[in-house]
Specification:
alpha/beta, 7 helices, five-stranded mixed sheet, single chain
């Protein structure tokens, strides 16, 4: 079976509950469409878990992108208490933006790791896919990105888009994408769309599916969603 999740945002407990609910096994594949980190309580434990699973394939989200920019190049002796001392003025502005966007717990947990584990984790993050194309045995085709596609042009190949167009897009309800394949993404919690009336449910349109149901905003009704591509069944935690 092929499963897709997105925007887990450090909700490691919900992730484990979901794996149990779908009976995830070594025979299955799971694509996570970015933003595994930040905001939630256990982003680094979640990353460590995924690093040890050969059948989990993460895509790059905007949160991983900014983490890489902030953490790459830091010396081994940097800690959460003094990390700000190692940045240039420009670097500090970027780090501050990351902190403002929920990066505090991630930075703390990451900088608590021994240097060799930090290096392994950064190498893992640098291997994250930017997009994925999947063709099912029945002929259905899917394109996976973190956020949709900004400035969509049907004449362009998915590989022709810059990274920013695939990690920072904000598709509207009326937007259309491919006519012969389905685009699946997260990034924008579905519960904020006016038509949702605050319900966290996967959004299906004619040409795209948004599976970000705001897992980290559980106090406001958010849930972690998982879509099984084989039969298009949706699971929630």
């Amino acid at each position: 079976m092929i499963y897709v999740m997105s925007d887990i945002h450090g909700c490691y407990g919900a992730f484990l509950q979901m794996l149990e609910q779908i009976h995830f096994s070594d025979e299955d594949d799971l694509y996570i469409l970015g933003d595994l980190i930040d905001r939630g309580e256990a982003p680094i434990p979640l990353l460590k878990d995924c690093m040890n699973r050969v059948n989990v394939y993460p895509l790059l989200g905007n949160h991983e992108a900014i983490m890489l920019r902030c953490m790459c190049g830091l010396p081994d002796e940097a800690t959460a208490d003094d990390v700000e001392d190692y940045y240039t003025e420009e670097g500090f502005e970027l780090f501050s933006a990351w902190m403002h966007n929920g990066g505090g717990v991630t930075a703390q947990q990451y900088l608590d790791l021994p240097p060799e584990q930090r290096e392994e984790m950064l190498a893992y993050l640098q291997e994250f896919l930017i997009y994925e194309e999947i063709k099912m045995p029945d002929g259905r085709e899917f394109i996976l990105t973190h956020s949709g596609i900004d400035g969509f042009d049907p004449t362009l190949r998915i590989s022709d888009y810059p990274i920013d167009a695939l990690v920072n897009a904000r598709p509207q309800l009326t937007d259309r994408f491919y006519e012969d394949k389905m685009l699946i993404f997260g990034h924008t919690p579905t519960l904020i769309y006016p038509h949702s009336k605050g319900l966290a449910e996967v959004l299906f349109t004619e040409t795209y599916i948004n599976i970000d149901c705001g897992a980290v905003f559980h106090e406001g009704g958010g849930r972690l969603a998982c879509l099984r591509l084989d039969d298009m069944e949706v699971f929630y935690v």
